[in-house]
Amino acid sequence: MQFVEEIVVDEFLPTVRSLLAGDLRDRGLTQSEVADVLGISQSAVSKYAHGDVTVNNRIADDDRVQETVEELGTGLAAGEISPVQALIEIEVLIRNLEAGGDLLAQLHEEAVPELADHGSGFRVHDPESDLRTSERVLSSLRRGLRILETTSGFTGLIPAVGSNLVACTPDAEHVDDVAGVPGRIFDVKGQATVPADPEFGVSEHVAQVLLAARRHGADVSAGINVTYDPELIDELTQRGHVAAEFDESDDVTSSVGAAIEEQPEASVLYQTGGMGIEPLIYVLGADAEDVADTIRSLV
Prior knowledge:
Elements: H1 4-26, H2 31-38, H3 42-49, H4 57-60, H5 63-78, H6 83-97, H7 103-111, H8 130-149, E1 165-168, E2 178-180, E3 186-188, E4 191-193, E5 199-200, H9 205-215, E6 222-227, H10 230-238, E7 243-245, H11 252-262, E8 268-271, E9 280-285, H12 288-296
Parallel strand pairs: 7-8
Antiparallel strand pairs: 1-2, 1-6, 2-5, 3-4, 6-9, 8-9
């Protein structure tokens, strides 16, 4: 009798640790630094480096595993992702790969052939827990922010009040269910500057726009505010987005709601300003990376 957890311990974890240790070493970290980041001994890092640990090639070659290792390697090396956050992202990947018919389930069935005839999925743990849901949102948000930080010309779209990229949980109802950048994103000498790691409950205004759009039927989970320019509206429209205007001098929730009800497919909301109100465009999307990719396409 072999449990799927044994596959994880014997096959998955050694493979991912080996890949991640190699990725971090390639980024210039010492063996000691890699050991600290991964919470393992230097001798273990040495074994990974010299190929003394058996790697499961099917796991190592999986696109999702490779993508996760690259993203975690980037974040851990830069100090943008903590070891705890990395652990949770790997946990989420494990649970997804345990789903019936997926990679770890296949390896489990091969180890225990009788399971192949049972027809059950193998989600041993709940991947939809509040903690994992929140971490997935923050993970997506961090990836979206990295896209913006490396997008040449993005600073030209940052309004005087600053931009904020936000994303929410699937059942978001309140500002506390929306994650964003504390202090917003600002242009500092031509460089898009993210002052702190994203957190929940730190964005008031962009979060309200996103929540208002969702309450009135918009199928979106993320958004960003950028400077208003009619040419940007035209460009977004040409790229297939539906744009709708709202009046920010009124109650944001009701005015955004009215705009969405008039244009149910709107993914771009804008207001042209007023007394003491800076004109802005709000780009909405499925997740933070989707929104960031849209912004990148504009510059």
